[in-house]
What we know:
Blueprint: E1 2-6, H1 11-22, E2 26-31, E3 45-48, H2 57-61, E4 66-69, H3 83-104, E5 108-112, H4 125-142, E6 145-151, H5 160-168, H6 174-186, E7 193-197, H7 215-222, H8 226-233, H9 259-268, H10 271-276
Parallel strand pairs: 1-2, 1-4, 2-3, 4-5, 5-6, 6-7
Amino acid sequence: xxxxxxxxxxxxxxxxxxxxxxxxxxxxxxxxxxxxxxxxxxxxxxxxxxxxxxxxxxxxxxxxxxxxxxxxxxxxxxxxxxxxxxxxxxxxxxxxxxxxxxxxxxxxxxxxxxxxxxxxxxxxxxxxxxxxxxxxxxxxxxxxxxxxxxxxxxxxxxxxxxxxxxxxxxxxxxxxxxxxxxxxxxxxxxxxxxxxxxxxxxxxxxxxxxxxxxxxxxxxxxxxxxxxxxxxxxxxxxxxxxxxxxxxxxxxxxxxxxxxxxxxxxxxxxxxxxxxxxxxxxxxxxx
Length: 287
């Protein structure tokens, strides 16, 4: 399949390129700026485009079978970007992407939404709601099948210990997000739907009853061996842990990673190595 990947230099774009190539797809990359002449972009077709006004998108989409649409300002940009900024990129950008899809006869779109969708009337969540409405409109009006992927927080983390704590309180492992998007691209059904790209649930609400009164003991009962690791690394587990909204979807995909899988890796690491680990990805400004 030939896929147009908009926002190619984004966090997700850089993660998806090698996966899509390994799956045998042909890629056309698009971004507002020229891409660095290095991996994973080397040797791939590139069309410079500004999704905010649609310039270049029709040329990029020509001959493609599907679009993976990634450009957006996110919660991490909340203080730096205005309502107008969020609207132009998240809403206008999605509108023009679908216009290009219509022009090129493309009938499949994977749209990067967000768990911010639940924040209906904040400037980020509102734009994601409208983005998904544009997906539904184009499905109804133009027969474009879509999957809207709603990731939880996988913004860059300070260090590996910060990452682990976040996995207890609503974060998601980037690899699970990329797995979900890859499954969405591979989906061959005709149904359109959203999917929650969130952490796996490793415990029930009943298991976490009384957590705040004695978090170490409660956590140890769920994840044997966790107490020693929490004390060794000074992890803050005092707040009640978050239960994710992971659920079955037509993709047949479910997340695999959670606080317990973080603890397993942490236990296998040397302390110096564990404390030195930093986030391997960043979020450049890219659309």
